[in-house]
Amino acid sequence: MKSVFIAIVCLNVCACLHAQGVTLLYKNNLGWNDPLSWIQINTPTGQTPLQRVPTELDDVVINSSLSGIYIFPGFIADAINTDFFVGSNNTVGYRCRSMHISNTDLSFDSPTYIDGAATLNVYTANGGYVIIDSGANVHRGHFLLHGGNPAITDLQILHSSYGTLFSHARWSSLSWDVGGRARLIGSTLSGTNMGSTSGGNIFIDSCIFNAQVFTLGDNSIDTILHCLIQDDITNLGLTFLIGRNAEVVSDSVQIEPTENLSFTTSGSVINGNIISHYIPGNMFFQQEDTAHPLPNILNGSLVTGEAEYYSFMGDLKISGDFICNGSVDAFNDGQSSDTAEVYVNGQPIFEVGGILNFAKSVYVSNCAQGYCHYKLEFFGNKNSNIHWPGGFPVDTLIINKSGCAKVTCDNSLYVAGATRIVSGQLALDPNDSLPYKFVCAGNVDIAQGGGLFLRRDAAGVVANIAVGGTLTDHNAVADSTCAGLSNPYGGTITFYSPLPLTLLDFKGRYAGKEVTLNWSTEAEINTKYFTIEKSLDQVSFVALANVKAAGNTLAHIYSYTDKSSLSSINYYRLKMADADGRFTYSRIIAVKAPANNAIVIFPNPARDKLFIRLAGITQQTAITINDAKGRCIKKLQLSAGTIQTSVNTAGLVAGVYSISFLSGTLKYTRQFIKQ
Q1: CA distances in angstroms from 396 to 137, 383, 404, 663, listed in the order given
Q2: H-helix or E-strand spanning residue 524
Q3: Pick from 45, 46, 28: which is nearest to 37 by CA?
Q4: Distance CA 4, CA 578 (A)
Q5: 492 φ, ψ (degrees, to nearest 5)
Q6: Which helix (H) or strand (E) holds 661?
Q7: Which residues 6+ apart lie within 8 Å of 67 measured at CB?
Q8: Cβ distance 507 to 514 under 8 Å?
Q9: Burial class (CB in 10 A: 0-12, 13-18, 19+), 219
Q10: Where are the beta strands (DSSP E) in 413-476?
Q11: Confidence check: pLDDT of 185 > 80
Q12: What is the pLDDT of residues 380-420, one digit of tens each?
């Protein structure tokens, strides 16, 4: 049904454009600028078909089966430096109004030039578009989509293939500019660069990508369903980028590099797996916007290959397994002889936690490139396992599993900051060769319904833990199958010394578009600095600045002003660091500020309910939900001042939907997936 809809749209567009030009069939491989290569196929009765080079008013058809004319698979351009202009009145280079390639093989390049391809510039502002369908195979070419008309899709590649890769050349690429639109279905696409740096809109379903760089640019709106994204045959690695404020709806996406993987994004949701089969190079996970980081969500598993170096920065939420098949010193900071200067029962803290080659301090300040600081949260209703040779280090660990789903760890687990078990269970099996299975330098907080279970193995060894802060269990009764601190076999729980510092007060005040933070201390001994950290959700925090401590003092007062952009509620905490590398966190405080207009929908994907949160909207709001074919499925009206509501999505068929809001002059549309 979907393909019929697409065909109707294309015919309507073509019918409109034919009124101004003619349709010319490319019937051999003599070259674009040779009149004998072209013949008119929409000739009026009684007139002789035209044979001439296309102009910006003409529609071009390249089809080996049309009218029984066979097109020899070959080259359509005469010179590699010649650009194509589709939907443009540019008088330089080859040009036409539209292009439809079906059931044929061709290349946009010169037969005498072996190291590149021609560029096809597509401008929908003037009605231009390109369709590649019906098993067409475009070997080479660089498509650049300029957009300009939201009613027309610049490029459609349907059940065809595009791009050819060779180890020594940049043969093909696909990029869309601000406003550029692409629809890619059931096709294989290869090229050095796929994507955009800013804006644009792309819909992808059931495709395979072979690329060196795959980018979803700033402020783009993208849908990726049932796709495999992998690096090309040159083994130069895959760089996967999602830009600022990009809205990405995904389902069943597999990202599989074979060499280096650089995953740079912020606030993205990937519904699928990231699997690196055999990486002899490096893997980088980092925040695209370090000043205002958002957690990246992987609704699947992360499985890495034999990488030589891993670096993580920012926040990652993951529902599946976190598996590293790399070496034990993957987090090596270049000083393999380093040992920690914090001790538990006379042993360096990293050694008792089984962490190898991981710098000197509890908070890793000198790890390579500064990418070792990140927060990891496990969510979902299925068990997850951590496998990391030499022990697994993380700044902050959150267990937020549904029901009694468990998180386990094959090797040792080291948390440099806090551990929060919101729901589900952290189940610890002992490592016979290590004194402690789990070392947490900060606080361990077990919420009501969350659990921490110290297990025993067949040899009778029990998992031991060491905690640098406090261990708080909010459950009245421990339950080894799910809730509470369960230690039925008498595992050792060691508490080591806290920081020699007392925080007397910590508060904040909003005035003049700024937040002023004030705190006071007493009994400071060797205190080194305070880091002010900010969050918009009390979960993901970002460091704003360091304030040098007095060091050794009976009492001191500190202040800091946050001049960054504000939302309705801002959350702050202090990270208080000692000279020997230990640190602890203050309580979290909330500071209210004037709310900005905002509409938020969650969760995405949705199952039974889609929640809607509105702020600063004072008029009535009309909400419409449409399916992928544009049919209206639901409508509702919200009274003025409504700040939160929900929509029952249990009866919707699984798929992609759009939800639109209309309130006065405010128009707002987003996509979501119904699982």
Answers
A1: 49, 19, 21, 40
A2: strand 514-524
A3: 28
A4: 67
A5: -80, 130
A6: strand 655-663
A7: 25, 41
A8: no
A9: middle
A10: 413-415, 419-428, 438-440, 444-446, 450-454, 465-467, 471-473
A11: yes
A12: 999 999 987 767 777 789 999 998 999 999 888 878 778 99
pLDDT at 58: 94
Identify residue 576 by its one-letter amino acid code. Answer: M
The pLDDT value given to residue 332? 37
Name the DSSP class of 169. B
Give the bridge partners for 521, in sequence order.
503, 556
Segment among 72-86, 111-125, 382-396, 650-664 with least mean pLDDT:
72-86
Cα distances from 603 to residues 152, 320, 612, 623, 652, in angstroms, run 31, 18, 9, 17, 15
- Coil/strand/helix, residue 325: coil
Spacing of C-alpha 175 from chain mean position: 19
Beta bridge partners of 385: 408
Q: How far apart are CA 168 and CA 200, in angstroms?
A: 30
Beta bridge partners, 535, equal 541, 571
What span, in angstroms and rounded, lies between the C-alpha atoms of 123 and 612?
37
The length of the chain in residues reads 675
What is d(CA 599, CA 78) in angstroms, rounded to the nearest whole number? 52
Please give the helix or strand (H or E) that residue 14 lies within, else none: helix 2-18
Facing residues of 575 across strands?
A: 531, 585
Region of poorest pLDDT, from 12-26, 294-308, 348-362 = 348-362
118: its two tokens: 């021609």
Check pLDDT > 70 for residue 309. no
Angle at 633 between CA 627 and CA 638, to 5 degrees: 120
Structure tokens at 619: 């008029």
Q: Which two tokens stand for residue 422?
A: 């919101």
Q: How far apart are CA 545 and CA 533, in angstroms?
A: 8
Q: Tokens in use for 436? A: 């402690």
The alpha carbon of residue 168 and the mean position of all alpha carbons in its chain are separated, in whole angstroms, by 30
3-state SS, 269-282, equals EECEEEECCCCCCE
Residue 6 clears pLDDT 70, i.e. is over it? no
Q: Provide the pLDDT for residue 224.
A: 94
Cis check: omega of the bond before 603, within 30 degrees of 0: yes
Token pair listed for 648: 């029952």
- Could you identify the residue written with the tokens 């040792």? 412
Confidence of residue 341 (pLDDT cuts 50, 70, 90): very low
Q: pLDDT tens-digit profile of 549-607?
A: 988 888 899 999 987 655 567 788 888 888 876 677 777 888 887 655 467 676 677 87
Distance of CA 442 to the CA centre of its chain: 29
DSSP per-residue letters across 573-630: EEEEEETTS-EEE---EEEE-PPPPEEEEE-SSBSSEEEEEEES--S-EEEEEE-TTS
Q: What's the one-letter identity of residue 9?
A: V
**pLDDT category, 514, cuts 50, 70, 90?**
confident
DSSP lists the bridge partners of residue 285 as: 263, 312
Q: Which residues contact 81 (CB under 8 A, 6 or more apart)?
A: 118
- Mean pLDDT lowest for which of 163-172, 420-429, 449-458, 497-506? 163-172
Distances in Å between the Cα of 115 and the Cα atoms of 72, 76, 164 are 22, 16, 12
Q: Token match 């027309």: residue?
A: 152
Instruction: Identify whether the C-beta of residue 110 lies closer than 8 Å to the C-beta of residue 80.
Output: yes
Bridge partners (DSSP) listed for residue 191: 211
Task: Please name every residue paired with 169 in a beta bridge, in sequence order, or none if there are none.
Answer: 166
